[in-house]
Amino acid sequence: EPEVTQTPSHQVTQMGQEVILRCVPISNHLYFYWYRQILGQKVEFLVSFYNNEISEKSEIFDDQFSVERPDGSNFTLKIRSTKLEDSAMYFCATGQGEGNTIYFGEGSWLTVV
Amino acid sequence: LAKTTQPISMDSYEGQEVNITCSHNNIATNDYITWYQQFPSQGPRFIIQGYKTKVTNEVASLFIPADRKSSTLSLPRVSLSDTAVYYCLVGDGGQGGSYIPTFGRGTSLIVHP
Fold first, then answer.
1. Residue A69: which domain range?
2. In CATH, what number is assigned to the domain containing residue B24?
């Protein structure tokens, strides 16, 4: 069964450092999403990406965040200057755009110290 | 966006059938109903999706009454490994990434030996 893969699975970084989280979507999917889940809290939407541009973003997705699909395969989330409150599990999700089925990766656990 | 309401938690025992009901009174004509399962520290996993009546796959069944204002996820003969959080989402899939799957608190199912 095709799956969304994410790397790294776990990253520890110092406050103020830049972090890049990577996602390889399911091959025929055109819609890409990043979500995050702080420990014990809800899965929160960050951003959606379609046709090489951001479609929607939440208030969480401020100027320190950016997304791109540099090589037509990987879909990346960059956090420019991490803060302690950025510690969370970050999930990539992709979909074909039919109905509302999107498929999630296993997540990247980010710890900011 | 249709708001969903589901129980915060449920308890069951191995071998029993579990039914989790989700209310979505303001569901729109184009909306689909999708259920996800999430284990701790993992990404949400798609379980089942339906529009009306009954849908069944190898994991679960989804019952949707004619008015579509609620839906029931049915898990036959649960095991300890079914202990997870179950989310009900409602939406139309959108075009160009305009639909944003939004997660609530979900239903925390605990299966006891």
1. 5-98
2. 2.60.40.10
